[in-house]
Amino acid sequence: MAKILFFRKILAVVISIAVVLGLVPFLSSCFSSFSLLKFGDLTVCAKIDEEGAPIDQKDEFNINAKKIFVTIEVNGVKADDNKRFTIVNMETDEIVFDITDKYSTKLEGLVEGNFYIETKDIEEGQILLEPGNYTVSFYHNGELKDSTDFKINKPESEIQEVTLSNAVDEITLEPLNDIKEFGAMDTIYVSILTNNQISGDVYSVRWYYGEDEIIDIVDLEVTENIYKEEYVIFWMPIEGSMGPGNYKAEIYLNSSLYGKYDFIIIGEVPIEEAGTGTGSYNIYFTQENLYTSQDYELSINYPDEWDFEITEDDKGYSILFFPISDETYMSVSLTISGKGNYDPDDLKAFSDEGVMDTGLETYNVEEYSGEILDSYYYEEYDYNLTDSEENEFLINNFLILRENNLVILSGISFSPQAEMYWDIYTAMLGTLSFE
Predict the structure, then answer these.
(1) Residue 259's domain is classified under what CATH number?
(2) Domain co-membership, 105 together with 243
(3) What is the structure's pLDDT at 256?
(4) Domain assignment of residue 271, yes or no
(5) Which of 14, 43, 97, 432 could cross-link 54 (Cys pair, CB 3.0–4.6 Å)?
């Protein structure tokens, strides 16, 4: 089974024809009452000169056009006569612009000059008009004097890049990594970065096992226009859908093949299940890094490209595991407290105290308890937290009563990397063993 996650931000189309009634008028006192009423050609252009006359006449504009002018030369009209400009979408008959006013409120008698309208300035990500054909018309005292057509060209959609990953940013949907090997518990994300997304376009992923055995074909039709770079996301959970082996994903746009992307699903390496752990390795543990303490008779695996630091004092012994990369915001610690008599009723308060020391604010906590590894009692507390800037974090505390010691596996992560963190944290918990 395949599923789709399609993320879209609706951009408002800015129908932004300004009431900049450009007038370079001349006072009527130069004219006699016999001056001829005359109208020039209504013109659509990209630029005008200082007198409002067209410079760059055009009847087609790209979707990223920043400015459009409509201008007409008029002679012998009265200052208090009415003029009207309209713009109509020819496909929908929608009137996208309609303004009526006097030729001049500052002059009297007869006037002449270039009268124009222009579009407002737009911000990044906005457009002047939806793609299509338009008719612009000019009226004098309610009488149509001239019309002309122009077109906003429909942009072509293009795929900029395709990335395979096992995690994406929850807000932007950008892939958080670029990998070709996936673990048995992973979800495969296909992130397709597009320059535009146009209604009616169809993106497709064909999943293959080996070279030619089709697993699934998934199509996604775009229903709304987006005129900026945006991601189309396809995803498929591996568990229950794919076994170990070589695979391929083919990416199509409107039935045209864009590219083929090979990937591998590695087999599971069984480990002893513990608590809420996954019970299997994943792609973050291919090097089989193992930390062992003979003094405390325990061992635990830690991820590839991670390091650790040890702290020991009269209160206990702690190992902090952390990623080498500065772009991975998480850590996991294993703490063995000094010997003592620990009451199970005090574990919640013990866990909460450690979380309060972070300075983060908790808005949700889940609690679990049971037995683990030779019937040791444990309690688990999973916290959702925020900082002063509304960034979200996860903290997980797994407390195990082991004879006269309290063993705590604690993890913290920035929420956008939660899926990667949870795979690592639960796998480490699953490898924890007492000798």
Answers:
(1) 2.70.50.60
(2) no
(3) 95
(4) no
(5) 43
